[in-house]
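Dear support,

Our group has been running a series of protein-ligand predictions, and this particular one with S-adenosylmethionine is the one our PI (initials K.S.) wants archived with full inputs and outputs. We had some confusion internally about which version of the output was final, so please treat the block below as the authoritative record. The input we submitted was:
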Amino acid sequence: MSTTELNDIEFSDPRLVALYDTLNPFGDDSEFFCQQAEKLSAKTIIDLGCGTGLLTCELAKRGYQMTGIEPSDAMLAVARSKPHSGQVTWIKGSFEQMEGLQADMILMTSHVAQFFFEESEWQGMLRAAHQALKPGGYLVFDIRRLTVPPFIGWPTEDNRRRFEDTAAGSVEWWFNLLQVKGERVRYELHYFFVRSGEKMVSTNELTFRSQEEIVRALSEADFKIETVYGDWDGSLVTPTSSEMIFVAKK
Ligand SMILES: C[S@@+](CC[C@H](N)C(=O)[O-])C[C@H]1O[C@@H](n2cnc3c(N)ncnc32)[C@H](O)[C@@H]1O
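Confirmed final output from the archive:
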């Protein structure tokens, strides 16, 4: 494993959490998940790893009964400050907090499913999701396919992305790959606050399970795979799709 310590401050440091929605605005992926909720006739939805609650609050606005579960206090604080957040039940934690809940749909969006590193956690999450779904309910989540090298097209130090944040001003943002070890990818996200000259680095890791592995795990957890999409336009997965979007039925 890389010697650089994992800190994930992208999700825990309030200065970086404050930038999260600017870097990750409501997009085609968010609209795709909203359409799935409608198409699959969900009424009650758990958003596991809901982050800053952008999608959670939008779904609440559209009339769904929402529960947002998230381990980071800083992300939850942003989520709780959004319009329609009062219609959402917010819970600090992870999949263990689904015990006793019942929903028509469980969402894990923007690659939350890639944070369950250990097999015991991954399988535990799938079992907990199965229990928390009503019969006929759906688990819907996205996973990136591992490319060589990973994260093709992301901004690099020599080709930074510059964006404007209302509070922080101009921020330069880029990615640096640290290590690929099997399915585990460790990387840094760099933030340079132009006005103050401050630099911050979030060291993150994701696990990239293959489509075959995910299909097997879903079947072992007693899910039936309804569809695997490969793009936010609703097209089905192909061997070259960069996304694998699973719709699994209890
Ligand atoms: C890339 S963000 C996605 C947030 C949100 N779902 C979205 O679509 O914007 C990943 C989120 O997963 C959360 N997370 C990390 N590990 C988790 C775990 N084991 N269980 C639940 N959430 C987790 C992080 O705190 C972070 O908020």
